[in-house]
Amino acid sequence: MEKERIVILGAGESGVGAAMLAQKQGFDVFVSDFGAIADRYKATLTELSIPFEEKKHTQELILTAIEVIKSPGIPDDVAIVKAIKKQRIPVISEIEFAKRYTDAKTICITGSNGKTTTTMLTYHILKKAGLNVGLAGNIGHSFAAQVATENFDWYVLEISSFMLDDMYAFKADLAVLLNITPDHLDRYDYKMNNYAASKMRITQNQTAADYFIYCADDEETQKALKNTTVTAKKYPFSIRKKIELGAYLEGNNLNININQLDQFTMSISELALQGKHNIYNSMASGIVAKVLDIRNSTIRESMGDIKNIEHRLEHVAKISGVDYINDSKATNVNSTWYALESVQPEVVLIMGGVDKGNDYDMLKELVKSKVKAIVCLGKNNKRIHEAFEDDVDVIVNTFSAHEAVQVAYHLAKKGDTVLLSPACASFDLFKNYEDRGNQFKMAVKEL
């Protein structure tokens, strides 16, 4: 009997994971990548004798598939995807495919900002509670590869809107939506409603036995909820108002209450992850933990000892009363908005790099109210000057992390914050955002 053919577009972490699982399930598998395939992924495919092609898409080999698993990074408007859809071949995501072959329960975390931190914190709590849990999605090893090779009871999945777009039968047992702020709008016809609808797909197929955890303070989420029927049990969280069932802030105490009997309380000063955005992230993870009936002492301990993700609002040092924060992972305007929103004024902001057609308008209010000086770090800083010349008194150009830190050091006074939050990609002066962050940290340590 001839095997049914599954084609995988994109040979990154998710694509190669999907290929491993499809092979294990007895399909005839073919992997096609329009770019070059990284050596380690090529080695895996070769070792498993999975046929692949790179730097091209051969239609005759692709259009014979019964189903195509598409990498989240490939937009729907590229020629090969259009050709596949014209043939009415279903296109799904790796997450959708992997879920068919596991009975494990899934905790799915999405949002424009804070996904990685909340996913890591949730995983940390579950692991500490002794659950048999895997970590996947946008983070770590691919979900499909783990379904093929591991046997977890639970998965904590970081889910992007691009993954959600190609999910149909998939269901999250616990769905978490942190926030909806403008990002990737180029993939959504520049319409915020389209992007919000994509994020709300996290609730699709949920039943009354499932849970939806969301931020009651986020305007776009509230708007999107009006247009979405959510069947799952809802647990909101807020730092602005008291929530009957969910999580809220009272004074300096974070409270989680999902039934009247067993309330969780913790002072926000004891949270390892500091800043307003991290109170939200901790609330979301805490509600998940309470739904799973994890003991208060375990939740408290986990929230108090998790290490922050490197290069994401990472506190580097306090020197002469000035805080130095490394947010090199902020490669878009949206992430920089988030960083500025979470720090106290006065800020010396180090930003710049490869501009992806950025719209700096959303930063203007925050820059006006919080930023005393901008230190540009990049080869071409013209657009940053144009965007903010009326909002700050000082804008300086620098061309290395060392120079940027030296200039910021002289501009900052006791009580100020020096924040590296570039809003741009790093490839003009650095290998990647990690390299940029590491060079910044080195330069701070030399002060």
TrEMBL record:
Pathway: Cell wall biogenesis; peptidoglycan biosynthesis. Keywords: ATP-binding, Cell cycle, Cell division, Cell shape, Cell wall biogenesis/degradation, Cytoplasm, Ligase, Nucleotide-binding, Peptidoglycan synthesis. Pfam families: Mur_ligase_C, Mur_ligase_M, MurD_N. Its main location: cytoplasm. GO terms for cellular component: cytoplasm. GO terms for molecular function: ATP binding; UDP-N-acetylmuramoylalanine-D-glutamate ligase activity. It is found in: Cytoplasm. It catalyses: UDP-N-acetyl-alpha-D-muramoyl-L-alanine + D-glutamate + ATP = UDP-N-acetyl-alpha-D-muramoyl-L-alanyl-D-glutamate + ADP + phosphate + H(+). GO terms for biological process: cell division; cell wall organization; peptidoglycan biosynthetic process; regulation of cell shape. Signal peptide: none annotated. Cell wall formation. Catalyzes the addition of glutamate to the nucleotide precursor UDP-N-acetylmuramoyl-L-alanine (UMA). This is UDP-N-acetylmuramoylalanine--D-glutamate ligase. It comes from Pedobacter duraquae.
